[in-house]
Design goal:
With about 210 residues, the protein is α+β, with helices and mostly antiparallel strands. It has five helices and seven strands; from the N terminus they run βαααβββαβαββ. It is elongated and about 60 Å long. GO terms for molecular function: N-acetyltransferase activity.
Length: about 210
């Protein structure tokens, strides 16, 4: 499917359940890899070992003492990712959310934007997800191009000194990172836990 067969428009209310399922599916595709990446870092392994050692004095089962901290850490990380990216944000100053639609009317992607936290920060992508059945068919690039056009229009209307778009990407989402780099984005920052990166931020001056 070529990008020319796609259109982007604002999400209709009756499409909200479908879009929510798409966002949740997108999070599920990356949450296990992010959890594996985070929990195999040396500080995380040390904390899990310490927690297991402490639980051995409380629990009768050695296996339970070993597995319980891992289970709780994975569950907490997954809940955090789902709360961050698996729900629809409220409409922001840039409008939306928007959906990518095939010519037949099938919703195949979703995009949401928000202004940066301070003047000059530009716009931020807060949600970007493509249905697993429509990936590698230009949907992500079409949504990204739409996000760039909205960011330019918003910056011009607000009198911003420059138009800029920032896209956060989970550390395990190598395909998305590669797409952004191919579109001229550069990794400029990151955030995570215990000194290890969980999310990288890519930006581009438009």
């Amino acid at each position: 499917m070529a990008p020319s067969h796609l259109s982007v428009r604002e999400m209709r209310e009756d499409e909200k359940p479908l879009v929510l399922e798409m966002l949740k599916a997108g999070v599920k595709d990356t949450e296990n890899r992010v959890a594996l990446h985070a929990l195999t870092r040396p500080p995380a392994l040390l904390l899990l070992a310490a927690a297991s050692s402490g639980l051995r004095f409380v629990l009768a089962s050695f296996a339970l003492a070993l597995l319980l901290p891992v289970f709780l850490a994975v569950a907490a990380m997954k809940l955090g990712l789902r709360a961050q990216w698996g729900s629809l944000p409220p409409p922001g100053g840039l409008g939306g959310p928007w959906v990518a639609v095939r010519g037949s009317g099938d919703v195949c992607g979703v995009l949401a934007l928000a202004p940066g936290s301070s003047a000059g920060d530009g716009a931020r992508v807060t949600r970007l997800s493509v249905s697993r059945w429509h990936r590698r068919r230009g949907v992500g690039r079409r949504l990204l191009a739409f996000a760039e056009s909205r960011a330019r229009a918003w910056a011009g209307g607000m009198g911003e000194p420059r138009a800029r778009l920032v896209v956060p990407v989970a550390v395990a989402a190598w395909g998305v990172a590669g797409m952004l780099e191919g579109c001229g984005y550069q990794a400029e920052g990151s955030w995570g836990c215990m000194g290890y990166t969980l999310v990288r931020e890519f930006s581009k001056d438009l």
